[in-house]
Protein backbone atom coordinates (compact mmCIF):
# COMPACT_ATOMS: atom_id res chain seq x y z
CA UNK A 1 0.00 0.00 0.00
CA UNK A 2 1.37 3.41 -0.95
CA UNK A 3 1.13 6.24 1.55
CA UNK A 4 -1.12 8.20 -0.81
CA UNK A 5 -3.57 5.36 -1.57
CA UNK A 6 -6.10 5.81 -4.38
CA UNK A 7 -8.60 8.62 -5.00
CA UNK A 8 -11.80 8.41 -7.11
CA UNK A 9 -13.86 11.44 -8.14
CA UNK A 10 -17.68 11.13 -7.92
CA UNK A 11 -20.59 13.20 -9.28
CA UNK A 12 -22.72 15.48 -7.06
CA UNK A 13 -25.14 12.70 -6.10
CA UNK A 14 -24.45 9.00 -5.60
CA UNK A 15 -26.79 6.28 -4.31
CA UNK A 16 -25.08 4.38 -1.48
CA UNK A 17 -26.68 1.20 -0.16
CA UNK A 18 -26.03 0.04 3.42
CA UNK A 19 -23.01 -2.28 3.62
CA UNK A 20 -23.79 -6.00 3.61
CA UNK A 21 -21.09 -6.84 6.13
CA UNK A 22 -21.08 -6.01 9.84
CA UNK A 23 -21.02 -2.27 10.42
CA UNK A 24 -21.79 0.64 12.75
CA UNK A 25 -24.91 2.59 11.77
CA UNK A 26 -24.65 6.27 12.68
CA UNK A 27 -27.55 8.73 12.37
CA UNK A 28 -25.83 12.01 13.21
CA UNK A 29 -28.76 14.27 12.37
CA UNK A 30 -31.37 12.69 14.63
CA UNK A 31 -31.40 16.00 16.53
CA UNK A 32 -33.18 17.39 13.46
CA UNK A 33 -35.41 14.43 12.55
CA UNK A 34 -36.52 12.49 15.66
CA UNK A 35 -40.28 12.83 16.13
CA UNK A 36 -41.62 9.81 18.00
CA UNK A 37 -41.20 9.78 21.76
CA UNK A 38 -39.18 6.54 21.72
CA UNK A 39 -36.83 8.10 19.14
CA UNK A 40 -36.10 11.35 20.97
CA UNK A 41 -36.28 10.34 24.65
CA UNK A 42 -32.56 9.43 24.69
CA UNK A 43 -31.54 12.46 22.62
CA UNK A 44 -29.87 15.01 24.90
CA UNK A 45 -29.24 18.66 24.10
CA UNK A 46 -26.27 19.93 26.13
CA UNK A 47 -25.75 23.70 26.01
CA UNK A 48 -22.35 25.21 26.86
CA UNK A 49 -21.15 28.76 27.36
CA UNK A 50 -20.24 29.87 23.86
CA UNK A 51 -22.29 32.00 21.43
CA UNK A 52 -24.47 30.13 18.96
CA UNK A 53 -26.49 31.22 15.93
CA UNK A 54 -28.27 27.95 15.27
CA UNK A 55 -32.07 27.78 15.68
CA UNK A 56 -32.39 26.39 19.20
CA UNK A 57 -36.10 25.67 18.89
CA UNK A 58 -35.50 23.49 15.83
CA UNK A 59 -33.24 21.22 17.90
CA UNK A 60 -35.19 21.35 21.17
CA UNK A 61 -38.29 19.59 19.84
CA UNK A 62 -36.23 16.55 18.81
CA UNK A 63 -34.55 16.05 22.21
CA UNK A 64 -35.99 14.45 25.32
CA UNK A 65 -33.58 16.02 27.81
CA UNK A 66 -31.85 19.41 28.00
CA UNK A 67 -28.85 20.12 30.25
CA UNK A 68 -26.99 23.43 30.61
CA UNK A 69 -23.31 23.46 31.56
CA UNK A 70 -22.78 26.43 33.89
CA UNK A 71 -22.88 29.59 31.73
CA UNK A 72 -24.73 27.70 29.03
CA UNK A 73 -27.82 28.63 31.06
CA UNK A 74 -26.98 32.30 30.41
CA UNK A 75 -26.88 31.57 26.67
CA UNK A 76 -30.24 29.80 26.85
CA UNK A 77 -31.79 32.60 28.92
CA UNK A 78 -30.50 35.33 26.59
CA UNK A 79 -31.71 33.59 23.45
CA UNK A 80 -35.30 34.53 24.36
CA UNK A 81 -36.70 38.05 24.68
CA UNK A 82 -39.22 37.49 27.47
CA UNK A 83 -39.92 35.26 30.47
CA UNK A 84 -43.06 33.78 28.97
CA UNK A 85 -41.04 32.32 26.12
CA UNK A 86 -38.27 31.22 28.49
CA UNK A 87 -40.82 29.22 30.48
CA UNK A 88 -41.59 27.20 27.35
CA UNK A 89 -37.92 26.16 27.05
CA UNK A 90 -36.77 25.12 30.50
CA UNK A 91 -33.76 22.81 30.87
CA UNK A 92 -33.96 19.85 33.22
CA UNK A 93 -30.57 20.54 34.84
CA UNK A 94 -27.95 23.23 35.23
CA UNK A 95 -24.57 21.77 36.25
CA UNK A 96 -21.13 23.22 36.96
CA UNK A 97 -18.91 25.19 39.29
CA UNK A 98 -21.02 28.27 38.48
CA UNK A 99 -18.14 30.64 37.92
CA UNK A 100 -20.06 31.89 34.87
CA UNK A 101 -23.74 31.45 35.79
CA UNK A 102 -25.39 34.81 36.48
CA UNK A 103 -27.42 35.12 39.67
CA UNK A 104 -30.56 36.37 37.89
CA UNK A 105 -30.43 33.39 35.52
CA UNK A 106 -29.92 30.93 38.36
CA UNK A 107 -32.79 32.48 40.34
CA UNK A 108 -35.15 32.40 37.35
CA UNK A 109 -34.59 28.76 36.49
CA UNK A 110 -34.56 27.67 40.13
CA UNK A 111 -37.94 29.34 40.60
CA UNK A 112 -39.29 27.32 37.67
CA UNK A 113 -38.25 23.98 39.17
CA UNK A 114 -35.05 23.38 37.20
CA UNK A 115 -32.63 21.18 39.18
CA UNK A 116 -29.48 23.16 39.97
CA UNK A 117 -26.42 20.97 40.68
CA UNK A 118 -23.32 22.84 41.91
CA UNK A 119 -20.09 20.89 41.46
CA UNK A 120 -17.12 22.92 42.66
CA UNK A 121 -14.38 20.31 42.24
CA UNK A 122 -11.71 21.36 39.74
CA UNK A 123 -10.43 17.96 38.62
CA UNK A 124 -13.01 17.85 35.82
CA UNK A 125 -14.56 20.61 33.71
CA UNK A 126 -18.22 21.59 33.42
CA UNK A 127 -18.68 19.52 30.27
CA UNK A 128 -17.48 16.35 32.04
CA UNK A 129 -19.70 17.11 35.03
CA UNK A 130 -22.68 17.50 32.71
CA UNK A 131 -21.92 14.16 31.06
CA UNK A 132 -22.08 12.47 34.48
CA UNK A 133 -25.39 14.20 35.16
CA UNK A 134 -26.79 12.81 31.90
CA UNK A 135 -25.59 9.28 32.68
CA UNK A 136 -27.08 9.42 36.17
CA UNK A 137 -30.39 10.87 34.95
CA UNK A 138 -31.08 7.89 32.71
CA UNK A 139 -29.67 5.28 35.09
CA UNK A 140 -31.76 6.55 38.01
CA UNK A 141 -34.84 6.80 35.79
CA UNK A 142 -34.41 3.21 34.60
CA UNK A 143 -34.06 2.02 38.20
CA UNK A 144 -37.06 4.03 39.35
CA UNK A 145 -34.92 5.92 41.87
CA UNK A 146 -34.95 9.53 42.99
CA UNK A 147 -31.79 11.61 43.02
CA UNK A 148 -29.72 10.88 46.15
CA UNK A 149 -27.86 13.56 48.08
CA UNK A 150 -25.20 15.15 45.84
CA UNK A 151 -22.06 16.49 47.48
CA UNK A 152 -21.23 19.96 46.14
CA UNK A 153 -17.57 19.16 45.51
CA UNK A 154 -17.60 16.16 43.19
CA UNK A 155 -20.78 14.34 44.12
CA UNK A 156 -21.85 13.40 40.61
CA UNK A 157 -18.58 11.57 40.02
CA UNK A 158 -18.87 9.79 43.38
CA UNK A 159 -22.43 8.60 42.71
CA UNK A 160 -21.61 7.56 39.15
CA UNK A 161 -18.54 5.55 40.10
CA UNK A 162 -19.47 4.23 43.56
CA UNK A 163 -23.21 3.61 43.25
CA UNK A 164 -23.54 2.95 39.50
CA UNK A 165 -20.17 1.32 38.88
CA UNK A 166 -19.32 3.89 36.22
CA UNK A 167 -21.06 1.94 33.43
CA UNK A 168 -24.40 1.87 31.65
CA UNK A 169 -25.96 -0.01 28.74
CA UNK A 170 -28.47 2.74 27.99
CA UNK A 171 -27.75 4.13 24.52
CA UNK A 172 -27.66 7.93 24.77
CA UNK A 173 -27.10 10.47 22.01
CA UNK A 174 -25.67 13.76 23.28
CA UNK A 175 -25.81 16.79 21.01
CA UNK A 176 -23.45 19.30 22.58
CA UNK A 177 -24.10 22.85 21.41
CA UNK A 178 -21.30 25.46 21.47
CA UNK A 179 -18.76 23.18 23.17
CA UNK A 180 -16.32 23.70 20.29
CA UNK A 181 -15.25 27.34 19.94
CA UNK A 182 -13.82 29.96 22.22
CA UNK A 183 -10.56 29.01 23.89
CA UNK A 184 -8.48 26.58 21.86
CA UNK A 185 -7.38 24.49 24.85
CA UNK A 186 -11.01 23.84 25.80
CA UNK A 187 -11.87 22.83 22.24
CA UNK A 188 -8.94 20.39 22.15
CA UNK A 189 -10.02 18.95 25.49
CA UNK A 190 -13.53 18.44 24.09
CA UNK A 191 -12.16 16.53 21.10
CA UNK A 192 -10.04 14.54 23.52
CA UNK A 193 -13.23 13.60 25.40
CA UNK A 194 -14.77 12.46 22.13
CA UNK A 195 -12.15 9.71 21.92
CA UNK A 196 -11.93 8.96 25.65
CA UNK A 197 -15.67 8.61 26.25
CA UNK A 198 -16.04 6.18 23.36
CA UNK A 199 -13.53 3.94 25.10
CA UNK A 200 -14.67 4.39 28.71
CA UNK A 201 -18.43 4.95 28.30
CA UNK A 202 -19.36 3.42 24.93
CA UNK A 203 -23.10 3.80 25.58
CA UNK A 204 -22.62 7.51 24.85
CA UNK A 205 -22.77 8.78 21.28
CA UNK A 206 -21.41 12.30 21.26
CA UNK A 207 -21.96 14.97 18.61
CA UNK A 208 -20.64 18.55 18.74
CA UNK A 209 -22.83 21.18 17.08
CA UNK A 210 -21.08 24.38 16.01
CA UNK A 211 -22.40 27.31 13.99
CA UNK A 212 -20.84 25.77 10.88
CA UNK A 213 -20.66 22.00 11.24
CA UNK A 214 -21.38 18.81 13.14
CA UNK A 215 -18.40 16.95 14.64
CA UNK A 216 -18.49 13.30 15.68
CA UNK A 217 -16.50 10.09 15.80
CA UNK A 218 -16.37 7.34 13.21
CA UNK A 219 -15.52 4.03 14.82
CA UNK A 220 -12.87 1.49 13.99
CA UNK A 221 -14.38 -0.80 11.35
CA UNK A 222 -17.11 -0.08 8.79
CA UNK A 223 -19.39 2.93 9.39
CA UNK A 224 -22.65 3.62 7.56
CA UNK A 225 -23.65 7.24 8.14
CA UNK A 226 -27.28 7.71 7.15
CA UNK A 227 -29.83 10.54 6.90
CA UNK A 228 -33.20 11.07 5.11
CA UNK A 229 -31.54 13.35 2.55
CA UNK A 230 -28.86 16.04 2.54
CA UNK A 231 -31.35 18.93 2.77
CA UNK A 232 -31.98 17.90 6.38
CA UNK A 233 -28.64 19.40 7.36
CA UNK A 234 -27.71 21.54 4.35
CA UNK A 235 -30.42 23.76 2.85
CA UNK A 236 -28.04 25.17 0.26
CA UNK A 237 -28.39 22.73 -2.65
CA UNK A 238 -26.06 24.60 -5.01
CA UNK A 239 -23.22 22.22 -4.08
CA UNK A 240 -22.83 19.17 -1.83
CA UNK A 241 -22.01 19.87 1.84
CA UNK A 242 -18.36 20.04 2.86
CA UNK A 243 -16.77 17.49 5.17
CA UNK A 244 -13.47 16.31 6.62
CA UNK A 245 -11.91 13.16 8.08
CA UNK A 246 -9.47 14.23 10.76
CA UNK A 247 -6.97 11.87 12.46
CA UNK A 248 -6.96 13.58 15.86
CA UNK A 249 -6.39 10.41 17.88
CA UNK A 250 -3.03 8.92 18.81
CA UNK A 251 -2.72 6.59 15.80
CA UNK A 252 -2.51 6.88 12.04
CA UNK A 253 -5.63 5.69 10.20
CA UNK A 254 -6.14 3.83 6.93
CA UNK A 255 -9.36 4.85 5.19
CA UNK A 256 -11.72 3.52 2.53
CA UNK A 257 -14.86 5.43 1.59
CA UNK A 258 -17.90 5.49 -0.71
CA UNK A 259 -20.16 8.53 -0.93
CA UNK A 260 -17.77 11.51 -1.12
CA UNK A 261 -16.77 13.77 -4.00
CA UNK A 262 -13.28 12.29 -3.60
CA UNK A 263 -13.57 8.72 -2.40
CA UNK A 264 -10.45 7.01 -1.15
CA UNK A 265 -9.03 3.51 -1.01
CA UNK A 266 -6.22 2.33 1.30
CA UNK A 267 -5.51 5.98 2.12
CA UNK A 268 -3.21 6.59 5.07
CA UNK A 269 -3.96 9.69 7.13
CA UNK A 270 -2.16 11.10 10.16
CA UNK A 271 -1.12 14.39 11.70
CA UNK A 272 2.09 15.63 10.04
CA UNK A 273 0.94 13.69 6.97
CA UNK A 274 -1.98 13.78 4.56
CA UNK A 275 -5.38 14.86 5.99
CA UNK A 276 -8.76 14.82 4.23
CA UNK A 277 -10.37 18.27 4.46
CA UNK A 278 -12.73 20.24 2.19
CA UNK A 279 -14.18 17.06 0.70
CA UNK A 280 -17.92 16.92 -0.05
CA UNK A 281 -20.74 14.54 0.88
CA UNK A 282 -22.34 13.25 -2.32
CA UNK A 283 -24.13 10.19 -0.92
CA UNK A 284 -27.82 10.77 -1.52
CA UNK A 285 -29.00 9.28 1.78
CA UNK A 286 -25.77 8.12 3.36
CA UNK A 287 -22.13 7.18 2.90
CA UNK A 288 -19.67 4.51 4.01
CA UNK A 289 -16.31 4.95 5.71
CA UNK A 290 -14.11 2.05 6.74
CA UNK A 291 -11.31 3.03 9.09
CA UNK A 292 -8.54 1.13 10.82
CA UNK A 293 -8.93 3.30 13.97
CA UNK A 294 -11.45 5.79 15.34
CA UNK A 295 -11.36 9.08 13.47
CA UNK A 296 -13.03 12.48 13.85
CA UNK A 297 -15.44 13.62 11.14
CA UNK A 298 -17.03 16.99 10.51
CA UNK A 299 -19.93 17.74 8.16
CA UNK A 300 -21.06 21.21 7.13
CA UNK A 301 -24.31 22.47 8.65
CA UNK A 302 -26.41 24.97 6.73
CA UNK A 303 -29.78 25.18 8.43
TrEMBL record:
<dbReference type="Pfam" id="PF04265">
    <property type="entry name" value="TPK_B1_binding"/>
</dbReference>
<dbReference type="InterPro" id="IPR036371">
    <property type="entry name" value="TPK_B1-bd_sf"/>
</dbReference>
<dbReference type="InterPro" id="IPR007371">
    <property type="entry name" value="TPK_catalytic"/>
</dbReference>
<keyword id="KW-0808">Transferase</keyword>
<comment type="similarity">
    <text>Belongs to the thiamine pyrophosphokinase family.</text>
</comment>
<dbReference type="GO" id="GO:0005524">
    <property type="term" value="F:ATP binding"/>
</dbReference>
<dbReference type="GO" id="GO:0004788">
    <property type="term" value="F:thiamine diphosphokinase activity"/>
</dbReference>
<keyword id="KW-0547">Nucleotide-binding</keyword>
<dbReference type="InterPro" id="IPR036759">
    <property type="entry name" value="TPK_catalytic_sf"/>
</dbReference>
<feature type="domain" description="Thiamin pyrophosphokinase thiamin-binding">
    <location>
        <begin position="221"/>
        <end position="295"/>
    </location>
</feature>
<keyword id="KW-0418">Kinase</keyword>
<dbReference type="InterPro" id="IPR016966">
    <property type="entry name" value="Thiamin_pyrophosphokinase_euk"/>
</dbReference>
<protein>
    <recommendedName>
        <fullName>Thiamine pyrophosphokinase</fullName>
        <ecNumber>2.7.6.2</ecNumber>
    </recommendedName>
</protein>
<dbReference type="InterPro" id="IPR007373">
    <property type="entry name" value="Thiamin_PyroPKinase_B1-bd"/>
</dbReference>
<dbReference type="InterPro" id="IPR006282">
    <property type="entry name" value="Thi_PPkinase"/>
</dbReference>
<feature type="region of interest" description="Disordered">
    <location>
        <begin position="1"/>
        <end position="21"/>
    </location>
</feature>
<keyword id="KW-0067">ATP-binding</keyword>
<dbReference type="Pfam" id="PF04263">
    <property type="entry name" value="TPK_catalytic"/>
</dbReference>
<dbReference type="GO" id="GO:0030975">
    <property type="term" value="F:thiamine binding"/>
</dbReference>
<comment type="pathway">
    <text>Cofactor biosynthesis; thiamine diphosphate biosynthesis; thiamine diphosphate from thiamine: step 1/1.</text>
</comment>
<dbReference type="GO" id="GO:0016301">
    <property type="term" value="F:kinase activity"/>
</dbReference>
<dbReference type="GO" id="GO:0006772">
    <property type="term" value="P:thiamine metabolic process"/>
</dbReference>
<dbReference type="GO" id="GO:0009229">
    <property type="term" value="P:thiamine diphosphate biosynthetic process"/>
</dbReference>
Amino acid sequence: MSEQGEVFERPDTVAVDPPSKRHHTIEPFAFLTSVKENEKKHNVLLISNQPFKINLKAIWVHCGLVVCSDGGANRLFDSFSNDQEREDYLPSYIVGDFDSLRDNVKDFYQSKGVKIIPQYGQYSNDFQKSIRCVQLHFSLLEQGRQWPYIDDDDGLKEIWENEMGGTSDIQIHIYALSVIGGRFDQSVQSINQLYILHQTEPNLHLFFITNDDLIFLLYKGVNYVTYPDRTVFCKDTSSPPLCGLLPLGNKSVVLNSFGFRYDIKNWLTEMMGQVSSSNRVVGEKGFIVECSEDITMNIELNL
